[in-house]
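Reviewers of the previous submission asked for a worked example of the structure-prediction workflow described in the proposal, so we include one complete record here. The input consisted solely of the amino acid sequence. No template or homolog information was supplied to the procedure at any stage.
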Amino acid sequence: MTDIDSSSNLAHSQLSTYYPLIDTHTHFDAPVFDNDRRQQAKRAFESGVHHLVLVGYLHKHFSRLYDTQQTLEQMPAAKDVAKSGETNAYPTAYIALGLHPFYIEQHTEAHLESMAQMLNEQRPLAIGEIGFDTYTDAMKQPEAFAKQERFFEAQLDMAVEHQLPVMLHIRKAHAEALALLKAHNYDAHKLGGIAHSFSGGEQEAKAFAKLGFKLGVTGQITNPNAKKLRRAIKAAVDSYGIECLVIETDCPDMTPIICQTSPNHVFALNETGQSPNDEWQGAEGHNRNVPANLPWVVMSLSEMLDVEPAKLARQLWQNSCDALQTSWPYPA
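From that input alone, the workflow returned the following structure tokens.
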């Protein structure tokens, strides 16, 4: 057992109440979970996670999403446990397909064409993660940004064609993303959608909520020093209610602060832009996030917004269903 798993088990011993949850954004297919995926899936369900979404970002890893989904499908889901008497249950996994803006240099027109064909052959739950990312100087250059814009629009077109919700990755380009979304015929009020791992300010939070997107809240909310994020989430809730939120782990990134064992936590995909050819290597022993940590996001939001955890968890479930255009019944 790794240090982070020990820390997480200790943390969860303090959570005495079980709330059914949906993890709307994971990279649970990443190789960093290959050695203990079944164990972590079991722990996730025991922590309340009934459904989780495997989110794509590179075409070459799309097949891995389906392989992971198939692996999880071979494990008994809650509904099957009730019928069979099986003592273990595991979350049900769903897939989102998307070409992530941070890796725009690696995407080709052939990848777009292949993705469009995949949508025709096997309908995913959503399209994502897609959007804008200008984290580095290179990504701010006109040519790189223009390519991001072209791929963003193309994938929004696919979402409209197939009537699917989208998962947005927007980093340091919220104004540009809002302008594009307002000009496009994608309608989040009708199709759903999530502004994944929201990182903008108060006005931007309200702007995305006004467009119909739910704001994805990660373990970052558990950090009391994340003052900008907390203000933004509070501002959106003040204007649109808790109905504008969903929760996610974004595992193996965004580990809740109570589950961290190292003060130098590295966000492999979201912060450093680590090469996907060396995906999250080293994260296993140094603050790897896992789906079982999702309840800490609920508890932090409950405290911050002064909403009872049971009420909040139930509303977050409904919000997730609305955002993903599903009708998963809330477990009794």
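The two ends are 33 Å apart (CA to CA). We consider this example representative of the routine output the project will generate in years two and three.
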